[in-house]
Amino acid sequence: MFTLPDSWVWDFWFADDGAQHHLFFLHASRALHDPEARHYRASIGHAVSTDLTHWTRVPDALVRADAPAFDDLATWTGSVVRHPDGTWFLFYTGATRAGDGRNVQRIGYATSTDLTTWHKAGTNPVLSADPAWYETLDSGQWHDEAFRDPWVFPDPDGDGWHMLITARATTGPAFERGVVGHAVSADLRNWRLRPPLSAPAAHGFGQLEVLQTEVVDGKPLLLFSCLAEHASGSRRAGGTRGGIWAAPAESLLGPFGIDAAQQVTDDRYYSGKLVRRRDGAWVLMGFHHTGPDGSFTGGVSDPMPVSWDGRRLTVDGLPGPAGHASTAAAPAG
């Protein structure tokens, strides 16, 4: 487990340079006292490991910029990939405040030659929500402008790059609008926004946080997280506590069976990430979200082996009742 004595640690993502696993994570000082305040003080930290279990903290990767940059409030969740020329790209969410105090999220990137020293591409984002396809703040349907958590991966056929984005549709009930946002790029520097890869439907999720697509044991899956307060009334009535979810997919680019998503963990874990060990086996890691007393915990879990059993994603070594949480999702609506 990776924790910091003086800071809360939550969302995270990985890079692998062949010698070490690099953990990038959000953190904020516990001197804030209120863990909910962490979101607006988030910086991106960095740690390294050879086994995904024992971590050494190294210098932070990114901090927020001075106003009026798109990331002058906080730097949030992202992903890291390597360009064929050897340059590392860290895509991240930049948060800023709108005039009414609510936050607006946009996406930018930084580059590095060594995964240690990062240089932002500038003070302007490379992507923001287009109201032709994605909900913006002026809709009044949500507490923020949700356009974040860029998950970048190479095209399966070798034709450029794709980015999946936590976003919301422009139509439908408020707690059904979570969609898989989409953008494409030929060079990682210039991006074109596309319509979402999923549609708002009676799936019961107001947002699909920290998206990831991978193929586990031959099965394409979409991994995402959603808390109970961001799920529909029928999901809450069905007893969902939120947590990490896995939805079946036909490919890394969908179609995605979000209405058939199954809960992998309860809300003791969040922001789940699938990562390969050096032996090729898949493991799941999440941050510790809800403690026994219901309070926020923080800290990245140890790796837990996963497999596809033909019907769902199963997790070995998941403690307590959450170990039985990989059951059919409650009815949406």
TrEMBL record:
Entry keyword annotation includes Hydrolase: yes
Keyword terms, alphabetized: Glycosidase, Hydrolase
InterPro entries found in the cross-reference section: Fructan_Metab_Enzymes, Glyco_hydro_32, Glyco_hydro_32_N, Glyco_hydro_beta-prop_sf
GO biological process: carbohydrate metabolic process
Protein family (similarity comment): Belongs to the glycosyl hydrolase 32 family.
Domain (Glycosyl hydrolase family 32 N-terminal): residue spans on this chain: 20-222
GO function terms (MF aspect): hydrolase activity, hydrolyzing O-glycosyl compounds
Protein name per Swiss-Prot or TrEMBL: Glycosyl hydrolase family 32 N-terminal domain-containing protein
PANTHER family (alphabetical): BETA-FRUCTOFURANOSIDASE, INSOLUBLE ISOENZYME CWINV1-RELATED
Pfam families, per database record: Glyco_hydro_32N (PF00251)
